[in-house]
Amino acid sequence: MNSYFNIDKSYNMLSGIVENEIRRLRKLLPEKKKRLSELLEEEKPKITLSNGIEVAVSIEELKFLAEKLPKALHNKVQVPIIIMKDSDLGRGAYVVCGSIFEKMAIARILGLNPPIDGKMVIYTPHVMLLLTKLKTLILLIVKPRTVERVYTGKNYSANMSRGEYERRNVNL
User: Fold this and answer.
1) pLDDT per residue over 23-47, tens digit each?
2) Which of 63, 77, 81, 91 is the most exposed place for a label (fewest CB within 10 A)?
3) pTM (two decimals)
4) What is the span of the domain harbouring residue 164?
5) Is 1 inside a domain boundary?
């Protein structure tokens, strides 16, 4: 039985759902990142989230991170360090977000070479290690999958036009 599927209506509905979820999750992001040097000076280090909630940061973890970095970088590295799960890069792939200084810090902790091109991809075992060492200094986020991949479970090629995608997937 073939049924007609209105792709535009479903696409708009799913886009709205995804946008609402993104808005909700943004409230859990830090209002502002703090420099490592700044947090080391605080008696009770904490980070304020966008929704106003203050989250305590471990002094032991701050000291561990500071020991791994040259003193000159303490004023450059900002926490929390955001690590984004990106299923578009493959199973278990994560991207370290932020400046080259945060990426250098993560590379030092993991014993990896610092990224040359600016993008740093790590994998689940690396993230597990980071969470054991820096659980209050790391913020894990998940990159939303494209609406097409969420709905169909199929990869949507960026090289494919929307019309071509619709023609291939009329009878979902």
Assistant:
1) 776 667 788 899 999 999 999 999 9
2) 91
3) 0.69
4) 7-168
5) no
